[in-house]
């Protein structure tokens, strides 16, 4: 497989997120985010690590852009730190906007197409103190914030993603409690997700007025859900869990309605479902971003409130304990495209590996094999009719992996956190050759 097997205008990119790489957590007028508070709370993050410095990208962005250029990527997906550009619900932080203007200009200077993610989890603390995603007003605060970004960057940035993985923001942050703000309440998770989708819709509405020649979408983490065994019960719960983890975040945007079976089982568990603003939530988008990593095996378990248990699979796993399952990428690309008939980008795909550095080298052959197999499945999906427009690798350099701190390395570039030196791993060198094959 070669780069030229992909369509000529197919985009290969690399992705990061503000809280995971920037550092400078309290510099140049940046106000706290919920992740600053959460990571400073003992016991929340492995080894009690935090994003205060991270990869110091705030001060090293020029060097990092040079690496992106050297490897040969067409595009770079990054997120904006809401608390870095807004001091409160009304006032902008000009120094924060300046940082992103310089970043965008440097990318364009290097002929790298910027893709902006408006929200990648670092909610300003001043909003959390007003109820955060539980407060219905947040959708309009998000519209105001989005509009400021569109007005400041929309002249040069034409590809926008409103939210990264609302499932993570709502279920990990408000139900499982392992992400900021660390709540454990299913009704809150369903409420926050509905407000996240409302915020997405209001942002799309503003975008149509402010960036008329741009494209906007939303990114969902998308997992292949499979029955643990070939029994009718396992097949049923696999369909149910697919609705709860995937359909719940896609259907409202295209159909203006939550998936039926998932609604029913949530309501059977006494959870209120929200239907307001579906006309806003389903404002027409230009693409879906798919973040694909692995599959989830489920087993019928009538004793459980949602009638299923997740089973550990037997396939080779990454350092996150996620099975390596490239066929699942093909399956989900076909499924999502055929169900929603909306153009797609893979906005994240990659793996955490047992990366060890020796004499400045990291022999991550496993990551090369991971990427190759997923590229092959993406190409197969294109040949089978999926309108797939691009593929962003997660991630550029090792960075802050949320509750795992710095213990998990997803980068194609090795980050030495004591010196902040970057080292290209073998996977980056392989990608450079692959991308040169234009
Ligand atoms: O877990 C790997 C990645 N998954 N998607 C969201 C990113 O912020 C994560 O680092």
UniProtKB/TrEMBL annotation:
InterPro entries: GH, GH_1_N_CS, Glyco_hydro_1, Glyco_hydro_1_AS, Glyco_hydro_1_beta-glucosidase. Transmembrane segments: none annotated. Pathway: Glycan metabolism; cellulose degradation. Substrate binds at residues 20, 120, 164, 293, 394, 401-402. The active site is at residues 165, 348. Keywords: Carbohydrate metabolism, Cellulose degradation, Glycosidase, Hydrolase, Polysaccharide degradation. One of its GO terms (cellular component) is cytosol. Belongs to the glycosyl hydrolase 1 family. This is Beta-glucosidase. It comes from Thermosipho japonicus.
């Amino acid at each position: 497989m070669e780069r030229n097997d992909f369509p000529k205008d197919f985009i290969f990119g690399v992705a990061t997120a503000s809280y995971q790489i920037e550092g400078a957590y309290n510099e140049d007028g940046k106000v706290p985010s919920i992740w600053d508070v959460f990571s400073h709370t003992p016991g929340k993050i492995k080894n009690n690590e935090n994003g205060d410095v991270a990869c110091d990208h705030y001060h090293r962005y020029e060097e990092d852009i040079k690496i992106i250029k050297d490897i040969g990527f067409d595009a770079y997906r990054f997120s904006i730190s809401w608390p870095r550009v807004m001091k409160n619900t009304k006032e902008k932080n000009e120094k924060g906007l300046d940082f992103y203007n310089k970043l965008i200009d440097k990318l364009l200077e290097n002929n790298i197409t910027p893709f902006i993610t408006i929200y990648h989890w670092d909610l300003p603390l001043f909003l959390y103190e007003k109820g955060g995603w539980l407060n219905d007003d947040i959708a309009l605060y998000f519209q105001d914030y989005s509009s400021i970004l569109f007005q400041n960057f929309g002249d040069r940035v034409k590809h926008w993603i409103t939210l990264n993985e609302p499932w993570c923001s709502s279920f990990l942050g408000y139900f499982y409690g392992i992400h900021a703000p660390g709540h454990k309440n299913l009704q809150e998770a369903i409420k926050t997700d509905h407000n996240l989708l409302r915020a997405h819709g209001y942002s799309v509405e503003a975008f149509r007025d402010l960036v008329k020649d741009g494209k906007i979408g939303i990114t969902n983490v998308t997992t292949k859900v499979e029955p643990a065994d070939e029994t009718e019960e396992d097949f049923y719960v696999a369909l149910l869990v697919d609705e709860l983890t995937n359909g719940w975040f896609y259907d409202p945007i295209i159909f203006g309605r939550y998936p039926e079976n998932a609604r029913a089982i949530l309501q059977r568990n006494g959870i209120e479902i929200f239907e307001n603003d579906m006309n806003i939530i389903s404002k027409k988008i230009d693409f879906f971003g798919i973040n694909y990593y692995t599959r989830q095996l489920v087993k019928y378990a009538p004793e459980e409130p949602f009638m299923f248990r997740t089973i550990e699979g037997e396939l080779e796993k990454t350092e996150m304990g996620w099975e390596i399952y490239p066929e699942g990428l093909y399956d989900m690309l076909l499924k999502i495209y055929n169900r929603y008939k909306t153009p797609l980008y893979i906005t994240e795909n990659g793996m955490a590996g047992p990366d060890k550095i020796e004499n400045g080298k990291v022999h991550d052959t496993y990551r090369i094999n991971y990427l190759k197999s997923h590229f092959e499945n993406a190409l197969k999906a294109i040949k089978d009719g999926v309108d797939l427009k691009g593929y962003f690798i997660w991630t550029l350099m090792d960075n802050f992996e949320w509750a795992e701190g710095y213990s998990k390395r997803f980068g194609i570039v090795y980050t030495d956190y004591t010196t902040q030196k970057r080292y290209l791993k073998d996977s980056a060198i392989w990608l450079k050759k692959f991308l040169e094959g234009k």
